[in-house]
């Protein structure tokens, strides 16, 4: 494992899972953590008809939600205990209509910083056993003391 | 009204409202169209606890969903009848935690093209009567014949 | 002037002009500061044949360079003395080929933060007396102590 | 080679090199094509003092120029003869100050479309024999008939 991906918190996976479980929207979407590794997260989401756009594909906003979350939690795997993460911004390309039975968003840390972490991610759809990329994301994540992250103020 | 914002379809508002209503995810989120004008759309979303992240604010993915949709529908107000729109990509900055009772995403057409339209948008939160910007988005939308937009292929 | 645009450093314009003059690339491009105001900067660049792409328009990279710089310096107008700024990231849409005699990039602060500032900008081309938007940018700028900004390390 | 990276034009490298040579700005920067392969381009740029920002590093605008060009030409390797490419938009993260003796921008096609191609790229700096990532880009490129690309109108 490259030095830049060594977790500072041996309990990083517990911390990530606890935070994810506290996100009500993930229950609403039916998303769950598939994989929690140092610097990399996979979130899985089965297709569901309450999440569609006008052509009955998964809405791009839902695709972006799991892509962004995979990036944010990938960053969190590498933060020290007691620190929280917030997405500063991201850019996403929607590569194809999100058609499929299952969607997996994989986010990875590209550059880890004390304050800012840059992540990349991809969302893959599986349809009749065939996998296809439906989105790709590039995101900037900020690491903050928990108190700052919970106060109703700007990320920085 | 500047020439670039003259709608080609006098029934643009009906078309936008019909497409919006067909998006199941909007019902799941509790979002609705607040305003449909040539080149500009406002989507309103009341806070709801099934949409939160780990600190009980609105999840950034939900903020992005209404921001992106406001941009896409703003583009659709200017397309000829029978054509559909898809988001090619967007970039969003999350300016502050999405805390508030009500969220309004306003999307406007910045540059209208035959094929590609560029939009900007802002999401404002209202909390105890005070309004605050929580996100800003820049999006590229493609106009496609309906048949292309519904086929399970890439946007272009 | 809104409170958020009050400069902390009365000498902000001197500081911005000094930093701009120290950018050798601006001399190479022939760019200069047209306007330095609290929260807003305009950079002007005359067309020059050593800056073109394959169709003899201004290269998009040059357009982006003045757009990004206008955003960065707009942020710097609001930082306390002794602090420096760095661009964390930006996203730019190229709206039209950069054809014209003169190009002006205007960058403005959209949200000022202690650490991160979000700016928007536009690049306008003037051709035969007619003005046209050729690019639009959204950028995230970080404020750093000068020592950090000059060290050969990541922005944060 | 994956099917999606098979070039339609056996002479793609000649076409890319001819277009690159016609970009005056590349001569001004001192940039050259290091590698031209189906779906991937590398552009190399030696450090030069006429390209610096205020701390004597390479200006971010120059970094972005070679990153964007590497993406655009990567897309062009896969277009049919007679078609041209234009950058619709890109997003770049600046990961570290651009300090070094040599800079290499590598752009690759992530998703090839008939009309829109999505590319990713990285810029690496080499300083005293050590390589370091200084930027990462995600770009959307449009393929156009040459006539459209040279007319003074919007990319689409």
Task: Describe the protein in words.
The first copy, chain A, is an alpha+beta fold. Chain A has one domain (3-149): Thiol Ester Dehydrase, Chain A (Roll). In chain A, 24% of the residues lie in helices and 40% in strands. Chain A has 4 helices and 6 strands, in the order H-H-E-E-H-E-E-E-E-H. Chain A has helices at 12-21, 24-29, 60-76, 146-150, and strands at residues 32-37, 40-46, 83-94, 102-111, 116-127, 130-145. Chain A has a 6-stranded antiparallel β-sheet with strand order 1-2-4-5-6-3. In chain A, strand 4 (102-111) and strand 5 (116-127) form a beta hairpin. Chain A is globular and about 45 Å long. The model of chain A is unreliable at 152-156 (pLDDT under 50). Chains A and B meet through helix 2, helix 3 and strand 3 of A and helix 2, helix 3 and strand 3 of B.
Q: Key features?
A:
homotetramer, 156 residues, alpha+beta, Thiol Ester Dehydrase, Chain A, 4 helices, globular
Radius of gyration from the alpha-carbon trace of chain A, in angstroms? 15 Å
CATH homologous superfamily placement of chain A: Hotdog Thioesterase
Oligomer: homotetramer
* Estimated share of beta-strand residues of chain A: 35-45%
| Helix/sheet category of chain A | alpha+beta
Strands ordered across the widest β-sheet of chain A? 1-2-4-5-6-3
User: In CATH terms, what is the fold-level topology of chain A?
Assistant: Thiol Ester Dehydrase, Chain A
Largest sheet of chain A: 6 strands, antiparallel
Distance between the termini of chain A: 31 Å
> What is the N-to-C order of secondary-structure elements of chain A (H for helix, E for strand)?
HHEEHEEEEH
Tally the helices of chain A: what do you get? 4
Mean pLDDT reading of chain A: 92
